[in-house]
Design goal:
The chain has helices at 77-82, 120-131, 185-197, 210-223, 243-256, 267-272; strands at residues 6-12, 15-23, 48-49, 54-55, 63-68, 71-75, 90-98, 107-115, 135-143, 146-155, 158-164. With 278 residues, the protein is an alpha+beta fold. Strands 1-2-8-11-10-9-7 form a seven-stranded mixed β-barrel. It has a two-stranded antiparallel sheet with strand order 3-4. A two-stranded antiparallel ribbon has the order 5-6. Helix 3 runs parallel beside helix 5. It is extended, with a radius of gyration of 27 Å.
Length: 278
Amino acid sequence: MASSVWSGYLTFGLISMPVRLFSGARSSSVSFHMLHRDDLQRVKQKLFCSAENREISRDEVVKGYEYRKDEYVVVEPDEIKKIEPKTAKTMEILEFVKAADVDPVYFESSYFMMPEEAGRRPYALLTKALEESDYVAIAKLTMHNREYTVFLRPHEGGIMLHTMYYAEEVRQVEGFGAPDVELKDSEVKIAHQLIEALSADWDPEKYHDTFQENVKKLIETKLEGGKIAEVEKPKKLAPVVDLMAALKQSLAEMEGKKKPATGEKPAAAAGGRKSRKG
């Protein structure tokens, strides 16, 4: 099993249970090293003090907060330890809210929350109670030198934890919202039909990062001395003048495409599917 990123206690009223958090998802991509073009040797980054005009070692480095231009207050690691709130080791459920009321814009990172042996029974109880209600739990947690508001929800018999942005971190964009336009009922009706024509069951395994796949193919091609084929770029579409005509044409094209029968998976997706069990 992967190493946990946090361990402590989840409290629920007078109930306390030991739990651990494991990363639920992380992005992956092809990574490149920085090389010197002339000899293809790795380029190293060094720590350099501009005042003394010399390279310094890592043990000479401290963390500082700039409170005024070019003026800093130094903060030591043990000083950070002294001010850690109780949520550094205890995650307290503050309240329960309706799941539908939480906007996904507040979600940040996802974690699997699993109980230690002593916490299995209260963990199972909380999971079942959440599954049978429309509520999710809101708690506080300190991790990676930051206190988070977290969202606990039931998932596949267990509990997922999502760290959340604070309200002041969610940006507001001036002018965002419903455009001041009048839509015809016929336009809305065809838009619904177009959505229905494109509807499918949610299957995350059929979505892939095409760009990263192309980067891997590029590397393989260069290693084999082959010629790099340029990916066909989409044609630029002209601005829509007749919305109704564009909707009707889109719907006709969608309905002309054969959709797999219920339960049938496209060959590529079916062949690439891997079981999560085992």
